[in-house]
Write a structure and sequence with these properties.
The protein is elongated and about 65 Å long. It has one domain (about 5-100). The two termini are about 20 Å apart. A two-stranded antiparallel sheet has the order 1-2. About 85% of the residues lie in helices and about 5% in strands. With about 100 residues, the chain is mainly alpha-helical. It has helices at about 5-10, 15-45, 50, 60-100, and strands spanning about 55, 60.
């Protein structure tokens, strides 16, 4: 990429908005997942009797919590993909159009 185009991209308000929004949103989702995961591990470590309580037959609360963590990770991934395919792609197209001079 030529230096002039790189400078135009970095100066573009859409680029600055994209970097700021994507970073903040990514960190928010990552922190949420880490809190949930380490919370589950903390419960396993400090209150194993809670995790081991039977709900039905051989199914325990821990199994449902573990499945919930997996489901949460899938949901969070879907939320990020939805945001990326809408907001972030729109900003990226605007940045490319402006940097290449094809903006109207």
């Amino acid at each position: 990429m030529e230096e002039g185009m790189l400078g135009r991209v970095k100066a573009d308000p859409n680029y600055q908005s994209l970097v700021k929004e994507r970073s903040a949103f990514g960190w928010t989702l990552a922190i949420l997942m880490l809190v949930m995961y380490y919370g589950y591990i903390a419960i396993v470590a400090f209150d194993p009797s809670l995790i081991g309580q039977k709900v039905s037959g051989t199914l325990t609360i821990g199994i449902f919590m573990g499945a919930g963590l997996i489901a949460l990770s899938v949901v969070l991934t879907g939320i990020y993909v939805l945001r990326a395919n809408t907001r972030y792609d729109t900003l990226t197209r605007a940045i490319v159009a402006k940097a290449t001079g094809s903006a109207k």
